[in-house]
Batch of 4 targets.
Target 1
Amino acid sequence: VTFGMINSNETLQANGAFTVRFDESLVDGEIVRLLLQMSNNNHSYLDSIDIIVNAPVLNCTKVSFSNLDGEPTDRFIKGESSLMTFDITNLGHSKSFDVTNQLAINVPFLDITENKLTTEAIEAGETAQVTFQVNIHDNAPKGNILNYSLETQCGIRTALYESRVLLGYTTEDFEDDELNPNFQWSIGTGSKKWTIMEDPTATEGYCM
């Protein structure tokens, strides 16, 4: 961009003088420094401009379960279908592109009606919902804890949410030398702490 003579204390403006394209890999809040070189006859001047990048940041902020009638549940039931609804929130400062959401539950006794769904672009600070139908087969075990993951993708940006869900009603059989870690038992502290001991009179040789 070339200006004519600039008088002392005078400001000139050139609208649309430069086009700057920021790479999609830049993250929200990152600072990019632009260098501006100016020259006048034999004199050269260097200045800089700091620009804060606005970009989308997607995160799963809530998961809810219900049956096909929309009644809330907290688990899967053998032989029935359930709906899993995820809230996808844009925590960044820029509107996203369309968002691809892929649900994975890697067990052989269920299927997902459609495991990859797309939501429209999400404005900064807004939330979109995506709902998957999960069908539990009749041969599923009566009590289990299933790991699942949801991967969201927007352009080159991805986010992974992982958690667990109950299948049916689980029980602890107390027939081993340790408690099932999936149940997150509270065994107390200090002198009031529960411990597992060998006991030949117990069915499997252990008691608490």
Target 2
Amino acid sequence: LCLDYRKMPVNLKLMRGRIVRRKIVLLAESVGFGGIERLVIDLFRYMREGYINEIEPYLVIFRRRGGFLKEIEGEKNVYFLSSCGKKKLKTTNFDLYLKLRKLLTELEPDILHFHGYPVDFIGVISSLGLKVRRIAHIHNFHFIGGKKRIRKYRFVSRYINSFIYVSKAVMNSVDPLYNAFCSDKRVLYNFVVPERIEALLRKESVTR
């Protein structure tokens, strides 16, 4: 597993003397055609299918929109916080804080894995007080914003347990500005699903 959640020091819950599966929640803004969205969906399915006895994954999408929507609609453990896809996601969408807090209270996850801003900011604030580890996954330089965003993010970085960057260049650019408290930071390059590449190559050979 490219990101081995199993090694993270979470408080494992016991049920009748046996360890239950770790509940991991992946959070993203939407499921539009993009690298972040593709990675999140693939990671969700990889955990669900490859680690069925160890991990219980959940996928939380803030806005019900995007080219991958039909691909995941109706799948088990997939949740949409908002049905309004046109509404821009902002840190002032206070209704989402309440919806996410209610959902997380019901799911009782062990790990929250945020993908992109302001998903991570909303996710951190909504989960304060819960016994959960938080991972912020920074995918690109577009994460960098103005002074107001920097101040807000440096504040919530005290509640983030791990920062993951997709490259050293992104880490060197973003981390000094946004991460004021978290010492656990690492580089994890993006991955691809081999089967998808093989399918594309077969399709290309046929069209030729």
Target 3
Amino acid sequence: YDFSLYNNTDFPTTIENLATDKSKALQLFNFAGTEESGFFEGALVSDGVDDYAIIQNDKEGFRTVFMQVNPMSAETMLYDQRIHGFIEEAFAIYLYANSIAYNARNPGGITYINGILNESILSRDLLNNKHIITIVNDSSSYIPYIFSSNTPSLFTKAKTFKFLGFKEALTAEQVQEVIKQYFSESQLLDSQGYELTDSEGNYLTVS
């Protein structure tokens, strides 16, 4: 889903899935169609009060999720595809301020920030910063909820620019390729127009 394609003038109740399966549209709930609860500067802004969304016709979720987002509230749920909502259940993206981002509800999974494996950055350090979250977890479970838990509750205040989900658990190399293909506007380039990478070959992106 690319939220930059929409505006508040013709506010939609569903967001079209740009992938092959058009049946999996994103159903929006409680958005007011304003800058604080709607579309603003290329993002879908969730107000942290009662805004949330559900991916239609999907009852198993994804094994890899990409979200380009600027989270603005801690102790809230950005994404949830768990059946029962248990802590040990895979998986959800929970903005737990003092834990490694975003591993608090990702048991057995891997988390990348801007394409780089995250083992040290805390969720609180990413608040109010635009970045790309990638969760890889070789399990699928339930209906995907975005901007809240599947109750729904724990509503997130955030600016979300893009969302991609894959039924497969992608490798590190595949994660890099997805970022290069779908998030190229966030990549840092040198003076010759080539992508900048770190010492391990990971693409460097604007955060």
Target 4
Amino acid sequence: SAWLCAYAALTGRLYRLPTLQLAALIAFVALLVWFALTLTPLAGFPVPQAWAIVGPPGALTLDRAATLVEILKLTGLGAVFVSGWVVAQDEVRSERALTTLLTLGGAYAVWSIAAFVADPAAVFGVPKTFHTDRLTGSFLSANTAGSLFGVFALAAWITALRSLRAYFQGGAADAGGRRKLFAAAAFRVALTLLFWAALLFTVSRAAMV
């Protein structure tokens, strides 16, 4: 999905990118091309001698599968960065994206708590090797889950403070607008409490700090 967002963003904005951002994009694409060349014997360096045992055509890398996975991870990271940059160009769009992300995070937190209560010693039916009495969500480590819920809790609390400030400072002139502000603030406060509950179930001191 991040790749699709980045593609849609770049197809409409590529020629309007500032010089610095365009140069960074070109450098990133060149880096991907260079990494792709390591999957072949065309990279311009001697092929490792280990390929003499396997046979031609060989490649600069010894493990094509691992290198391909790393290339896909790098492109995914670049796509996420570009998607975030494009979303952040508009305040309304960034607000909607953050609200959507927190809502999905809230659904994930509800599922994680329910799964933990149902079977704290397993993830998707697979027994956990450690942290059997702590919430781990879909992860095997409670600290990983705690870090995720900690970030969600902080983001939800910041957005809740913004909504509360807008409500108490009269951000809407009519009664309907004030009700919408109150509903948004209440929803974000509830999300904050939900994320904190999930975080406490992880018993992760590092994540809480």
